[in-house]
Design goal:
- This protein is of the alpha/beta class.
- It is about 60% helix and about 10% strand.
- It has a five-stranded parallel sheet with strand order 2-1-3-4-5, sandwiched between helices.
- The chain is elongated.
Amino acid sequence: MNDLMNRIQCNLPEFSKGQRLIARYITEHYDKAAFMTASKLGATVGVSESTVVRFATELGYEGYPHLQKTLQEMIRNRLTAVQRMEVTNDRMGNRDVLQTVLSADVEKIRMTLDEIDRDAFHSAVEAITNARRIYILGVRSSSALANFIGFYFSLIFDNVKLVHTNTVSEIFEQILRVGKGDVFIGVSFPRYSKRTLSAMKYSKDQGAKVIALTDSRLSPLARYADHVLIAKSDMASFVDSLVAPLSVINALIVAVGMNRQQEIEGTFNKLESIWDEYQVYEKLEGE
C-alpha cells in the first residue's frame, strides 16, 4: 500500500487535472477503488475511461488491470467487515445475486487453475503421504475447510490431528509434540488468522514440514510455509468465498488417496460393512 501511495505522490506534479481526481479518490477510497472497473472509476470521479488507463500506465503499470490487482493484493487484509459489506453492495447494484455470485466463483476456480503451482501441489501430496503425523488447523470460516480435510484424511491415515481453536493456549497444547517428520497444514484467507500464523511458525521452528493453503503469495502464511497452495477467494464480500479453496482440497485428497489406494480400498470395504451393520445411511426403496 505504501509503495502505491508513494508512486502516486511522486507522480502528482506530472498528472493532469483528471488524473489528480483519480489519485485523490484512490488515496481516500482505496477500499472501493480496488474493485471498480476503469469505466466505473472514471464515471465516479468524472473523467473518461481512457484517462484512468493512462493514469495506470503513468504510474508504471502495464495497464489498469495490473494497477487494480496490485491494489487488491495490498489491501486484502485491511478491509473491515463494514467495508466488505459496502463493497458488496457497490458491486452487486441491481444485478441478479445468484448469477453474479456463482459466476464469480466459477472465475475464482479458473484463476486458481491457471495460477496454482503444480510443483508445490505435488510436493505437498508427497509430504502428506509420507508424514509421521498430520496436523490441520483452520480458524473461523476456514475451520470448515480444515474439518473437511480432517474428515477425509482420517479415513486414509491413522495419524491425523485436527487442531481445535478455542484458545491460543489450547492450540499449542495440541501441537506441543510436532516435530521432524510431521506435516502441519495451515488454512487461512483474508482476514488472516494470527492463531494460524503462530501455530505455523512454531511447527516450522520444531522441524515440521508446513503446508499453507491461502489466497496469495503475499499472504503472511507464505512466510512460514515449505509448500504454498494458492486458491483464489473473494475478499470483497462479507461472506468468504471458499469454493476454489475447497476445489484444491478435493484435488489434494484425491491425489493423496491415489498414493494410498490399496490401504484405502481395505479401509472402505471395512467401513461399508460397519455402515451397513449399524445402519449409518438411510436406504432407498429397492436397496
